[in-house]
Amino acid sequence: MTLSFKKISGNTRLLNPFKGNALDEIPFEIRFDPLTGATGRVFDLPFKAEKPDVADTVDRSKKIFCPFCPTALEKSTPEFPKDLIPEGRIKVGGATLIPNLAPFEKHAGVAIFSAEHFLPMENLNPETMGDAFSASLVYLKRVAQGDPLARFFSINWNYMPCAGSSIVHAHLQPNAGEAATNALREQIAGCRRYRQQNRRNFWQDFVQAEKQKDERYLKTIGSSFWTMSFVPASFLPDVQCVFPERMTLLELSKDDLEGFLEGLSRILKYFLEENIYSFNLSIFSTKEEESHRVNARICPRLLPRPIGNSDIAYPQMMHKESFTVRPPEAVREKAREAFIGA
Ligand SMILES: [Zn+2]
Fold this sequence. Notes:
Layout: E1 7-16, E2 22-32, E3 39-42, H1 54-62, H2 70-76, E4 90-92, E5 95-99, E6 107-112, H3 126-146, E7 152-159, E8 171-177, H4 182-198, H5 202-213, E9 217-221, E10 224-228, E11 239-242, H6 254-273, E12 279-286, E13 295-300, H7 314-319, E14 322-324, H8 328-337
Parallel strand pairs: 3-14
Antiparallel strand pairs: 1-2, 2-3, 4-5, 5-6, 6-8, 7-8, 7-12, 9-10, 10-11, 11-13, 12-13
Helix pairs in contact: 3-6, 6-8
The structure holds zinc ion.
Zinc ion (ZN) binds at residues 66, 68-69, 117, 169.
């Protein structure tokens, strides 16, 4: 197996005023993603997020028109063309799925979780999340049937404004199109390269390698495998979920989804314990790329300092380089506690 968790450990030297101006060395790491080779920087700083004022955000959102609240939904949101979705909008339980007026893709949906304007993070569990995810899967399957050119799929979630959401009312964004996004394209290239070099599937080896190392591994729930990311994508360590036996979102079963939502709710519980009230989630999938597997990332989002600075700055924006202030290995045990009983 050539899968490696490569890193370069470095030190930066300085005269530290907090240590009597003595010569100090501050360690950092440059890590290489085992699939794509993309690098990220990992520090170990004594950072602890402060609890944000969620009530204030929710209050402000109630003063702005919300198209997803029941009084506005029917009149203020679009419907799908009848040839694609004959009923106009997809409804599953309490969830309603509509077209996205700001289309990121040829096929771009918005799955509104429920009539509730604000769904607190504490209440995000398999029951409250199930309908919106099920509706998103129904939509992607219908798109795949109706448009053979749609070959790349994702289900995305910006939870709360801090993660980029302009609308507090909880909603997912399932997308399908003809061209993969950068992240998915790099995954596919990595999977093909790995298979060519090793005659093996990357994801199955990845799952084995993380379990063996046991430094970041969290839990396996049904068909879903959960681990802290070796090269975190966010300011605080993020979590990866892999379905090592599922090639496409289109084949995800009810049991698969239940396992995923159970794992997700555990991760969110862990985030809450860390005072994280906002996150991004993406589930990546192709239609029929043989070496690829359905996988997801869940990234905590926050305003790190009381001034309200963004957790995305020049490294991610300009250099496409992630940086993380805590090593994933340092927080693994805490995250794993949230999985007890899962
Ligand atoms: Zn609303």
